[in-house]
Amino acid sequence: MKAIIQRLHLTHPGHFVGGLTLWSIWFITIYGGLSVACAVAPPDPAQGALTSINISLLLLSLLTALLLAGLAWGCFQEAKMHEGRRHFNAFVSAWLYVFSAGGVMFVAGPMVGLPPCL
Amino acid sequence: MTTRNPEATGPENLQKLHDDLSDVWGNPRGLKALTIVNHTTLGLRFMVTGMAFFLIGGILAMLIRTQIATPDQNFLTPDIYSQVTTMHGTVMMFLFAIPILEGLAIYMIPKMIGARDLVCPRLTALGYWCYLFGGIILCFSMVLEMAPDSGWFMYTPLSSSEYSPGLGSDFWLLGITFVEISALSAGVELVVSILRTRTQGMALHKMPLFAWYILAMALMIVVGFPPLILGSILLELERAVGMPFFDIAGGGDPVLWQHLFWLFGHPEVYIIFLPAAGIVSTIIPVFAGRPIVGYGWVVFAITVMGFVSFGLWVHHMFTVGIPQLAQAFFSAASMLVAIPTGIQIFAWLATLWLGKPKMKLPMLWIVGFLVIFVCGGLTGVMLALVPFNWQVHDTHFVVAHMHYVLVGGMLFPLMAGIYYWLPLFSGRMPSETIGKWGFWLVFIGFNATFLIMHWTGLLGMPRRVYTYDTGFGWDIFNLLSSVGSFVMSAGFAMVLIDIALHFRYGKPAKTNPWNADTLEWANQLPPSPYNFVSLPPVETRHPLWEHPELPQQMQEGKHGLAAADHGRRELWGTDPLTGKVREIIHLPGNSWWPLFAAMALAVVCISLLLRWYPVAGVGVLIAIGFLLRWSWENGAHPRAAPDAKVMPGDPPLHSRTMDGPGLWAMTTAMIANGSFFLSYLFGWFYLWTVSPGWRMPDASPLSLVALVVAGVALLGGSALMESSVSKLRKQQDSGLAMRLYGAAILGALQFALILWVMWRADLAVTETSHDAILMVGLYYALLHSALGAVISLLQGMRVGYRYVGVHAPFEPVVVAYFWRYNAVVFWMLIVALAVLPRVIGS
Amino acid sequence: MRERYLYHVASLCIQRAVTRRVNRLTYVSLVVLLGLTGCAGDKSILDPAGQAARDVVLIWWIMLTFATVVFIGVIALWLYAFKRKHQERTPQQERKIARRWIVGGGILLPVFSVSALLIFGVPTGKRMLPLPLSEPPEVIEVIGHQWWWEVRYPGAEGGEVVTSNQLIMPAGEPVDFHVTSADVIHAFWVPRLGGKIDMLPGRVNVIRLEADEPGIFGAQCAEFCGAQHAHMNLYVEAVEREEYEAWLADRQEERLAELAIANENFTQARETFASTCAACHSVAGLSSSSIGPDLSDIGARYTLGAGVLPMEEGAIHYWLENHQTLKPSNKMPPHDYMDTATLESLGAWLETLTP
């Protein structure tokens, strides 16, 4: 675990954009995935929200959020270990990862209640 | 390494230093003023031009409000009204809001980060000329009564040749694309300047917040504008040539235009808001007399806004009929923006809370901003809710919301900023009395116009109607809105008079008149063309608060780079993270090439409008010629830095290293190019999967073998470039020219093969959108292969002139980057256009 | 129906508000409370006549209340920050206060607000989705043209019914509107019944709306569609089921065709129609073209030119003479090559087309 965290250079300001880049990729994937799935194999509207499309999108979202939460945790660890510039970078990145994880769950929320292709 | 002559700064030496600097950096007068590349002058030109367009846009707004002040008016004909509304939106967005904020950033950024100019001064000049010429061309359409009339969003098919047969849409598409060259060039150089030219010691987390905001804005321009450029090119091709990208009958889809437009259009709102918020974050601490609270939180908020704003575009398209779950994603993402906005508003509040705020004129505009912007933000959250949006979309409610956000979020902070920085522009202080009158008139007039307009919208009045019947209860509210709008324009007239008068009657300003903390106030008032006599080390966020003596010391040449007898325009090239000095960046001086290139591009633009394609072709070639000539005067060229001598202890010149701003500019430009390319791929896959009338042949018309051979040639060329670079890194330049020529030949081979593929494919580009979009992809690859070949060829020639070699190894590195980009993109293109259709089939 | 319409045109806004039932009174009182005594005309979002629109209005008032509280709160805090006396604090104290503001106001407040909005707001839209029903709803097709509306009833008993610029729908039951466009993008919007939906060429969008009870509702194209976007009104009326079916039955093609040739005084007018107007317009039994609006029942409509003129005696003639001034740039060529008598008789004949 430690080795991974070190590999990631979590005090580098590149991580400012890391979380939100993952968020964006996830966002494009679910939007694109939904559009393609609805074009290729739209489920019966009678099924409501509990379709294979919604479930797989939700699972993907959960995994993404977990990954982001893990990175946030790593950044917080790093932030504790440093001061000055490195602390600043890791700390801001940590909150950006937190936001991204929260953002994934928030945006994924409607998958629970809305049918996919109507 | 910081100071040239630490002991010898006596009065005579100091005078000589100033004279030397003025010789090197000074602005010529008369006709030669057209060659100026200095950021101070060009920043002001941008802002003054922006103000002129603001007046034009304002007059158009008055025409609109006059027409719909009462029901059944005949003040404007329906056609003219459509032109007026379209041009009001277009002028305000593209010719006022973005350029004026860019101008402010161009003016302010080098001064704030302790530099003497932006890294690509000639690009600043090119940007300005493209903006000016593009704006004039666009506005000239109104004189001809041929202005675009399908709305500033240009939805197809209304804007297509069938429903808008005149030149209006062409004026828009060509003019705006021309103007966007300026936005993109400013975007690229602002990114690089902020990252690489901060003064010594100014680490990333120590730079002024304004620089963070502008960094985000510039990156957003770089990523956000290319989708619209692509969209404009496709639509112009549809109009001029008949390639059916957006035409249902030809297998295109009008909704694709909406996606491309709003992929740009939504980030644009934040591109406008971020610099304005940067002004707020700069001014509030100064007038609260304490550092901003939550610097890190604000950086967090800026980053979040920069990203999330790209995930919102569909909220302009909630009524298009996209599945509701997909709409819900965008609805939720739109609401997420409330968090970074909230953080900033409360960080500003906390700063005021913990400081000793003083209500001076700039602060008045900031409070006005807050009232209006919070209101606009709250209606924005409401609009993010899909069912509510379905009701008020395209009504006056949205018009009101949008003006609250844009006028509140951009114009009020801009006015605050203009008043705040007036002493810097003119050396004089603004008056408090006329300024206050102006503020209150604008504030009251604005709210009278637009607060009421929410209600008009809720009563069901749609946008963009040139007239309406009495009896819906809209009459009185429209009349009140119109009265309010005239009050507001009276207010702006007063503000403009105030500003004009102050140049003559304002009290002369003393040094750092507002007791601000940032470096721009270490300039002379008004500033000299070189900004600072010497560049200081800065390791705090508030240099002028912690070192009040700094301006004096800098003037006396006690800090870095205090010499100009070498005749070079110099500034520090620093590490993007730590601010440690890496090299000395030398900048090109005044030049005719930017003006000439922009003039050639203007000829291209006009001849495309008039459909004189041969002239346009010649114009393109001339423009390329000018640009290549411009790039020739770099590095060890006699007009750049033939002599690489630096003072003992100083770092080398950037052109003598393997890293410099050009490399960063190339990278940033390739991000923009990549965004363009990804938008293209989006268009291809979108049409393929979603377009209702899509027709795709069973067998791909593109020869896979030829494309793969072309791809291999490209990889070969790229490998040659990489080996040139690695040899240079090892101080070897034997055979350098041969390798560069080799790469050029391989590029030419790739070019020839793509041409052959195009010819063999025999695409019916006016028949189906499939063939049309394939052709665009092939042209993209073709242009890139040609560009790669030409710049490698020129590098080979420069080796012969001794401008490039072990002594000046910089340029091949930059060119190798381009090849790398080209290789990645070309292979992606092969997979997307030639492999996937074979694998998946139609 | 005609009387109802005339009443509707004549009655003043206030009278209308008063004659409405008590649930409207809440709205009226709110309007008065806000000091905005303007009339909620028949395009007002705030005067819903269907459940979908009512849900949205409810959300609007809740959002407005909440937003007002937040707005006043934030502004008051800012202004107070200017007035309050400055206290010296240690950096620790400052940091604590700062964190309280940023976390409380900047994070918790928006997170709470938008979560509540999303949870309560998103289900509202479901009502307008064409979810499967136990009994399939009535389907009405609406096709946008520059600048008029084509309305089709594919499910009518005895064959499809076509009309223009008027939409009669059954009240008290959900209706699915299948909307599309013949040229540029338009948008279908009946503000008092529910949200709008774009009408795109090449695509069919579906929106489900329901009118609580019989009534007349204004509707207007909501997406900018060119010079005469302002004059693209649609007359919408909800009627009881039986009345609706009778209305459709009256418009069966053979009945309309009989009607067109019923009056023998207008042989000349019919000939003029066949030689000129028929190129674009259809009248059942005489011509079929959908370039311009179908005129088979034009005499029974309430407006002309998609809402430009009220229909009354002589109105069609007036329109035929002056349509390019009344609705500049509309796609019908001017009739200056025809004499007044011809146009007059043409108008008089068309006025007889009242099934």
Taking the alpha carbons of the first and last residues of chain A, their distance comes to 44 Å
The CATH superfamily of the largest domain in chain C is known as: Cupredoxins -  blue copper proteins
Computed over alpha carbons, the radius of gyration of chain C is: 26 Å
Shape field of chain C = elongated
Mean pLDDT of chain C, to the nearest integer, reads 87
CATH architecture of the largest domain in chain C: Sandwich
Q: How many structural units, i.e. domains of chain A? A: 1
Strand content of chain A: under 5%
Q: Report the top-level CATH class of the largest domain in chain C.
A: Mainly Beta
The side-by-side strand order for the widest beta sheet of chain C comes to 3-2-1-5-8
- Low-confidence runs of chain C: 6-41
Task: Provide the domain count of chain C.
Answer: 3
The span between the termini of chain C is 13 Å
Largest interface: B-C, 88 and 88 residues
Number of helices of chain C: 10
User: Which structural category do the helix and sheet elements of chain A fall into?
Assistant: mainly alpha
Supply the number of helical segments of chain A.
4
Mean pLDDT of chain A: 90
Transmembrane segments (chain A): 20-43, 55-76, 88-108
Keywords (chain A): Membrane, Transmembrane, Transmembrane helix
If you had to describe this structure to a student in words, what would you say it looks like?
Chain A is an all-alpha fold and 118 residues long. Chain A has one domain. Chain A contains 4 helices and no strands. The longest helix of chain A has 30 residues, at 52-81. Chain B has 842 residues and is an all-alpha fold. Chain B has a domain at 593-840: Four Helix Bundle (Hemerythrin (Met), subunit A), CATH 1.20.120. Chain B has a two-stranded antiparallel sheet. In chain B, strand 1 (569-574) and strand 2 (581-587) form a beta hairpin. Residues 1-7 of chain B have low confidence and may be disordered. The model of chain C is unreliable at 6-41 (pLDDT under 50). The two termini of chain C are 13 Å apart. Chain C is built from 10 helices and 12 strands. The longest helix of chain C is centred in the first third of the chain and has 35 residues, at 91-125. Classes of the chains: A mainly alpha (118), B mainly alpha (842), C alpha+beta (355). Chains in contact: A-B, A-C, B-C. At the B-C interface, helix 3, helix 9, helix 10, helix 11 and helix 12 of B face helix 4 and helix 5 of C.
